[in-house]
Write a structure and sequence with these properties.
globular, eight-stranded mixed beta sheet, BirA Bifunctional Protein, domain 2, alpha/beta
Amino acid sequence: MISRSSHAVEEDGAARRMGIDRGRSAPRGEHLDQPPGAATLETGSVLHVVHLGVVPYREACALQQRLREERLAGRAPDTLLLLEHPPVITLGRSFRREHLLAEEATIARRGIELVTTDRGGSATYHGPGQLVAYGIIDLQARGLDLHSYLRLLEEAMLRTLTDYGITAERDARNAGVWVAGSKIGFVGVHVRRWTTMHGCALNVDLDLDPFALMLPCGLQGVAVTSMSHVLASAAKVEQVTPLFAAHFATLLGAPVESSEAAVFRSHPGGARVGSGAVRAPEVHAD
């Protein structure tokens, strides 16, 4: 049975019903050399960056939920989790059965897990070779709104692709990052009291065949690509990851503090930070 959360903001029509248009191109000069909200940042407002390796989807969701509670309570800093997932198709809040093009038993035989999630959007695939970045970010403390944060995620992917000489762009009709009409980067954020979960995924060197088992994001006729496919040579997640992390931190205007995965999993709360910011109510979206 598909769960229904009222707090998701994803890359489907829900974001647009909230007046968040993530698909339009950046205005001239808005490639974020000046981080959004940087003028309102407190000095020393660090970003905790953690490289987790391969993490099952459910485990990553549970970790994000714990971290967000810690962030809301002022016991942890903003955190960026960088990881890959074992093969999994996640089914969001706008998922309909016709968005899957194969029977569940067929998907299971291919070693792909099916997981219902509280994010918006429809069906999405994650697998080894795809860089997944989950941000636990207090938007208000950073001087950001939902629109600017979603644009920041896209911009971090765009800059990372530029590092590899790949020309990518936004699409006026759909969210994410695209190369020659094919989707290469995905965005989606879940927000409670100004504080985010989830984030973005960049196809680096993953097997693209599982995308044929679904309508990606519930959209007909959407092609999907990867950095390795575009470059006609292998790109490596471990090489792409630090580039993305550096761009994300620069755009956020945050100094970076890194942790080893083993240490972080033992003490995920991190350092205590101030909690004096006024909090917003939860965001409700369908």
